C-alpha cells in the first residue's frame, strides 16, 4: 500500500495510506503489527502518547472522487488496547489534525476554509467553544503545523502565503533557542588584468581538462592504503584463548566494541610536520614542540629516546642537579616519584625508615623506602630508580584492589588516551595508602617488641603520621557514643562559592572546617536495633607532626572557588600561616603553628597524558649534610629534572594546566629526636638464611669478613624479563625503543677477589619471585629455566631479593672494591647505589673514547687466552673472568709509563684485532 503520512510514537511507526487505513509497524523491523480501518480515505492523523486521532473522507454511492465527502467526526483510537474510542464531533470539517500537548493534551482541528478550534482529547464541542477564522482571501489551506514550543501555529494556503498565529506577541518557536551558525562568506576572487605583463601565469587558474595530464600519476601507483592499526599488546596475545584458530581475550574496558584506535605519533618523534606546523611568537617557544609552549618547560613531561648503547644517559645529563638525585619515570607505577621525593625530605620519616629493618619479612614497604632513601642519601646527582620499592608495592593485594597498581602498557595508554586515569586523584589515594602502610607495619612491630621497644617504631606509630581523633555520635533519643580513631590525611572541604568578597577566605578556617566537621545522617543504633537520625562530630585530640591535606578539586565549584581565592590573594598579597590548638587546651605548649613544606601538583597536558610534580622546601639540615652550607630553598622535582624555584611558584596554580593535589605542612619548631640511620647488625658470616638443596658457593667465615676498606670482590648478575620492550618499526626500516624491557635480577654471584680462596664464590643466590616471567633469557642468564625461581619446585639455592640486597649493601658499607663487566646495568637492575671510587668496571678499563664497548668474551680470549660463554653465560665464570681481567689491567698499568703504553698501543692493537675478526672469537 502507498503511504501518504508518517507519524511515530514510542511503540509504533504509524503509516496512513490513501485507502483510509492506518498501519502500525514495528520501528525496528518495520513489520506490520496492526491495521486500523479508519476512513475511506485519509486526510490527516496525529498521535500523542497512547492516543491516535484521524480525519478523512467517507464514500457516498459511486466510486467517483466527487462522491467523497469529509467526515464531520474525528475518530479516536487507544493504541494500548488497539480499539476505537468515542469519536469527537466537530463543527468544522476537519482536514488537518495536530496535538498541542503542553500542560494539558489539546488537539488542533483545522478545515480547508481556514476555520480552526482547539479541543481537549476527551471534551465535547459546545456553543461556547471558540472558533477562529484565518483570513485566506479566497484561498484554501493546504497544510498546517505547530512549533516545537507549542506557542505558534502556521498555516500554508494555496496562494503561497504563510499565516502565523500565536497567543503571545513574542512567541518562542523552539524549546532551546540558539543562533544559527552560517557558513563563512567566500572571499571574492581578485580581478586579473589580462593585459598586465607582470602578472605570472600561475595566478590564472587552470581550466578543467577532461583528458589526462602529463603530471598525473599512473593508476597502479595511486592505490589507497589504510592506516596501520597499533600492535596488539603482547600480554593479550599470550593470555588469549584460541578456539579453532581464532583468539579470544576479554575486553579490558578501555576501548569500545568493534573499534580499533590508531596510535598517535609520540611527541618526541622527529616528524617534520610537528616541528614546522607552527612557530610560536615568543622566542622561548622556538625550537620546541609548538603545542607545549603554553606550559613552562620545567613543568613539562620529560621524555627521551632509548638506544642499545645507553645514550639516554647522555640525554639525562642536561637535567642533572649537583645536589639531588632524580627519579626515572619510564618504569611501571612511577607516577609516585614526586611523593617519594617529598617523603624523603621529611627528616623524622627519613631517619626512622632508614633505621627500620626486618629481614624475616620479605615484603615490607617501610624497609624498601629506607633502602631507597639510603640511595638518595649516597647519590649526589644522577638518576635513580625505585624499582625494588615498586616491585614490593605492586605485590600488595590492597594496592591492586584500590586501583593504585597501573599494569597497562604504553600502547594501551596511547590508545585510550589515559582518559580513565586521573593522576591527581590517583596520587592522593596513593599518599593515603602509603602513610597507612607505614603506620600499620611499624605499629605491629612495636607490639611485637615488648621488652626492648624500638625507637623507630615508637616514632612512626605515634603522632608523627597519624593524629588522634574522637568521634562523638549523638542519637535523636539522647544516647551518645564516643570512639577514638586515626586519620592520616584530610580532604579539604571548600565553602560554597558566594558573591565576591573584599578579602579571601582565610586558609586556616578552611582547614579547621575540614578537620573538625559535623555531619547529620542516619546510623545503626545497637540499642534500639534501628536506623536513627544522629549528629556526628569529629574532634581532634592530638595534632600530627606532619599535616597532609588533599585538595580534592574534583568538582567544578571547588575549582571556581580556588580560582577566586587565587585572584583575591593576588590582589591583597596577604600571607598567613595555619595554627591550631588541641581540644581542651589553652596553653601555648599545645599550640602548633604550621608552615607549608611541600606541594604536589598535576600538570594537565592532553598531548602527553599529564605528569605529577612536587615543590619541596628543602631545609638547612639537608644542605648542611650535602653541601656544607646552611640555607633553605624551594625546589621543583619533575622526575629527574630538578630546578630551584621561588616560593611563589610553589603556591601559584594556573588551573588551566597546573592543578594542586596535596599540601604538606610541617611545624615551625619541631623537637622530634631524629634516630641515626643504620644498616642491619653484622652477621657472624654471610650464609643463607635457609640452606638450599644445592650449594655452589662457600660462605664467608668470620675471619674473612671485611674489616677495612679496599677488600676486592667480583660481582656478576643475570636477569629475566618481566615485560618485553615496546619498540616501533619505521617505514625506512629503522627501529626505535619506546619503552625498554622490564628486567629482574634472577641470579647474583659474588666471588672472593683476594686471599687463599681467590675466585671462590661466597654468594650465589637465585632470586625467588612470584611474578610472571615473560622471557627467562636462558642463553644469557646462566641457564635459568622455568621453575628455577619458584620456591615450591626449584632445586637451586633460592633467596629473597631483600636478603641478597642486604648482603651486597653490607659489602658496600664496608668499603669493598667491586669488580665486574658492565656493572652499571647490574647495579641498576639490582637497584643499589655504589660509590664510583668502589667500582672497577672492565668494560670501561678496556675502552677507548668514542669507540665501541668490547664484550667480556672477546677480552677474555685476547688477554687471557680463555674461551668463555661457549654455550651459555654463567655468572660464576663471568665474575672470575672479570676479576682476572682486572688483575691483568693492573699488571699492564703498573706505573705511568706502562699506563701511557697501554692507552696508546695495547688498546689500539686490541681494537685493530677486533675489527679484523669482526669482534668474533675464532
From TrEMBL:
GO molecular function, a single term: poly(A)-specific ribonuclease activity
Which terms are listed as keywords in the entry?
Cytoplasm, Exonuclease, Hydrolase, Metal-binding, mRNA processing, Nuclease, Nucleus
Gene3D superfamilies recorded:
Cysteine proteinases, Ribonuclease H-like superfamily/Ribonuclease H, YVTN repeat-like/Quinoprotein amine dehydrogenase
Mind telling me which CDD domains this protein's record contains? PAN2_exo
Catalysis: reaction(s): Exonucleolytic cleavage of poly(A) to 5'-AMP
Which SUPFAM superfamilies has this protein been placed in? Cysteine proteinases (SSF54001), Ribonuclease H-like (SSF53098), WD40 repeat-like (SSF50978)
Cellular component GO terms held in the UniProt record: P-body; PAN complex
Q: Name one GO biological process term.
A: nuclear-transcribed mRNA poly(A) tail shortening
Signal sequence coordinates: none
Pfam families tied to this protein: PAN2_N, RNase_T, UCH_1
State the protein's name: USP domain-containing protein
Organism field: Ciona savignyi (Pacific transparent sea squirt)
Amino acid at each position: 500500500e502507498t503511504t501518504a503520512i508518517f507519524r511515530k510514537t514510542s511503540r509504533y511507526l504509524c503509516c496512513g495510506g490513501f485507502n483510509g487505513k492506518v498501519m502500525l509497524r514495528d520501528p525496528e523491523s518495520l513489520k506490520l503489527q496492526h491495521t486500523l480501518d479508519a476512513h475511506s480515505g485519509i486526510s490527516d492523523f496525529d498521535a500523542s502518547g497512547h492516543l491516535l486521532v484521524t480525519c478523512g473522507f467517507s464514500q457516498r454511492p459511486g466510486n467517483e472522487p466527487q462522491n467523497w465527502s469529509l467526515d464531520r467526526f474525528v475518530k479516536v483510537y487507544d493504541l494500548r488496547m488497539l480499539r476505537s474510542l468515542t469519536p469527537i464531533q466537530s463543527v468544522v470539517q476537519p482536514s488537518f489534525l495536530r496535538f498541542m500537548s503542553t500542560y494539558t493534551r489539546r488537539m488542533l482541528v483545522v478545515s480547508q476554509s481556514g476555520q480552526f478550534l482547539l479541543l481537549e482529547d476527551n471534551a465535547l464541542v459546545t456553543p461556547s467553544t471558540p472558533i477562529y477564522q484565518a483570513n485566506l482571501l479566497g484561498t484554501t489551506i493546504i497544510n498546517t503545523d505547530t512549533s516545537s514550543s507549542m506557542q505558534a501555529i502556521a498555516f500554508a494556503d494555496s496562494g503561497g502565503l504563510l499565516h502565523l498565529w500565536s497567543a503571545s506577541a513574542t512567541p518562542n518557536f523552539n524549546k532551546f533557542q540558539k543562533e544559527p551558525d552560517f557558513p563563512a562568506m567566500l572571499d571574492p576572487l581578485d580581478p586579473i588584468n589580462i593585459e598586465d605583463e607582470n602578472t605570472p601565469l600561475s595566478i590564472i587558474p587552470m581550466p578543467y581538462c577532461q583528458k589526462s595530464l602529463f603530471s598525473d600519476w599512473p593508476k597502479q601507483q595511486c592505490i589507497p592504503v589504510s592506516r596501520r592499526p597499533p600492535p596488539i599488546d603482547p600480554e593479550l596475545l599470550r593470555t588469549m584463548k584460541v578456539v579453532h584458530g581464532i583468539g579470544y581475550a576479554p575486553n579490558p574496558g578501555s576501548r569500545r566494541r568493534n573499534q580499533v584506535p590508531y596510535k598517535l605519533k609520540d611527541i618526541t618523534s622527529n616528524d617534520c610536520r610537528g616541528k614546522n606546523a607552527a612557530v610560536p611568537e615568543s622566542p622561548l617557544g622556538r625550537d620546541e614542540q609548538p603545542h607545549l609552549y603554553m606550559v613552562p618547560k620545567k613543568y613539562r613531561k620529560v621524555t627521551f629516546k632509548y638506544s642499545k648503547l645507553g645514550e639516554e644517559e647522555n640525554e639525562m645529563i642536561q637535567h642533572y642537579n649537583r645536589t639531588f638525585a632524580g627519579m626515572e619515570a619510564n618504569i611501571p607505577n612511577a607516577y609516585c616519584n614526586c611523593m617519594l621525593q617529598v617523603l624523603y625530605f621529611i627528616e623524622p620519616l627519613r631517619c626512622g625508615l632508614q633505621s627500620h629493618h626486618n629481614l624475616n619479612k620479605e615484603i615490607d614497604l617501610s624497609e624498601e623506602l629506607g633502602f631507597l632513601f639510603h640511595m638518595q642519601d649516597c647519590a649526589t646527582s644522577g638518576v635513580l630508580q625505585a624499582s625494588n620499592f615498586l616491585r614490593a608495592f605492586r605485590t600488595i593485594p590492597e594496592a591492586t584492589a584500590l586501583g593504585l597498581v597501573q599494569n597497562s602498557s604504553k600502547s594501551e595508554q596511547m590508545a585510550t588516551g589515559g582518559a580513565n586515569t586521573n593522576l591527581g586523584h590517583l596520587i592522593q589515594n596513593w599518599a593515603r595508602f602509603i602513610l597507612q602502610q607505614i603506620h600499620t607495619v611499624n605499629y605491629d612491630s612495636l607490639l611485637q617488641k615488648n621488652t626492648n621497644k624500638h625507637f623507630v617504631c615508637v616514632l612512626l606509630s605515634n603522632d608523627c603520621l597519624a593524629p588522634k581523633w574522637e568521634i562523638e555520635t549523638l542519637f535523636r533519643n539522647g544516647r551518645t557514643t564516643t570512639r577514638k580513631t586515626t586519620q592520616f590525611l584530610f580532604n579539604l572541604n571548600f565553602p560554597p562559592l558566594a558573591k565576591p568578597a573584599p578579602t579571601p577566605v582565610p586558609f586556616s578556617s578552611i582547614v579547621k572546617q575540614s578537620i573538625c566537621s559535623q555531619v547529620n545522617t542516619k546510623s545503626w543504633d545497637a540499642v534500639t536495633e534501628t536506623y536513627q537520625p544522629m549528629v556526628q562530630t569529629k574532634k581532634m585530640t592530638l595534632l600530627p607532626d606532619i599535616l597532609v591535606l588533599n585538595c580534592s578539586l574534583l568538582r567544578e565549584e571547588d575549582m571556581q572557588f580556588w580560582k577566586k581565592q587565587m585572584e583575591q590573594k593576588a590582589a591583597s598579597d596577604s600571607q598567613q600561616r595555619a595554627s591550631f590548638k588541641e581540644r581542651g587546651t589553652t596553653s601555648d605548649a599545645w599550640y602548633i603553628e604550621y608552615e607549608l613544606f611541600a606541594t604536589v601538583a598535576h600538570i594537565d597536558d592532553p598531548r602527553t597524558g599529564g605528569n605529577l610534580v612536587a615543590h619541596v622546601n628543602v631545609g638547612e639540615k639537608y644542605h648542611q649534610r650535602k653541601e656544607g652550607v646552611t640555607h633553605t630553598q624551594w625546589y621543583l622535582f619533575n622526575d629527574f629534572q630538578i630546578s630551584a624555584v621561588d616560593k611563589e611558584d610553589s603556591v601559584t596554580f594556573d588551573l588551566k594546566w597546573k592543578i594542586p593535589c596535596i599540601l604538606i605542612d610541617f611545624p615551625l619548631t619541631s623537637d622530634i629526636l631524629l634516630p641515626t640511620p643504620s644498616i642491619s647488625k653484622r652477621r657472624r658470616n654471610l650464609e643463607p638464611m635457609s640452606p638450599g638443596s644445592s650449594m655452589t658457593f662457600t660462605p664467608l667465615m668470620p675471619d674473612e669478613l671485611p674489616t677495612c676498606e679496599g677488600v676486592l670482590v667480583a660481582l656478576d648478575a643475570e636477569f629475566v624479563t618481566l615485560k618485553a620492550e615496546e619498540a616501533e618499526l619505521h617505514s625506512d626500516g629503522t627501529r626505535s625503543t619506546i619503552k625498554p624491557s622490564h628486567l629482574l635480577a634472577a641470579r647474583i654471584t659474588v666471588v672472593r677477589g683476594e686471599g687463599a680462596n681467590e675466585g671462590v664464590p661466597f654468594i650465589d643466590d637465585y632470586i625467588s619471585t612470584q611474578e610472571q616471567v615473560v622471557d627467562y633469557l636462558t642463553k644469557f642468564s646462566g641457564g635459568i629455566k622455568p621453575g628455577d625461581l619458584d620456591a615450591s619446585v626449584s632445586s637451586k639455592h633460592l633467596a629473597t631479593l631483600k636478603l641478597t640486597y642486604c648482603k651486597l649493601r653490607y659489602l658496600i658499607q664496608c668499603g669493598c672494591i667491586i669488580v665486574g663487566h658492565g656493572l652499571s646495568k647490574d647495579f641498576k637492575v639490582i637497584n643499589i647505589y655504589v660509590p664510583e671510587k668502589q667500582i672497577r668496571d672492565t668494560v670501561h678499563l678496556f675502552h677507548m673514547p668514542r669507540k665501541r664497548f668490547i664484550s667480556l668474551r672477546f677480552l677474555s680470549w685476547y688477554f687471557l687466552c680463555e674461551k668463555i660463554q661457549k654455550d651459555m653465560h654463567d655468572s660464576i665464570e663471568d665474575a672470575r673472568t672479570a676479576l682476572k681481567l682486572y688483575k691483568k689491567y693492573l699488571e699492564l698499568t703498573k706505573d705511568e709509563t706502562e699506563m701511557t703504553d697501554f692507552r696508546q698501543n695495547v688498546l689500539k692493537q686490541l681494537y685493530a684485532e677486533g675489527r679484523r675478526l669482526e669482534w668474533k672469537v675464532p
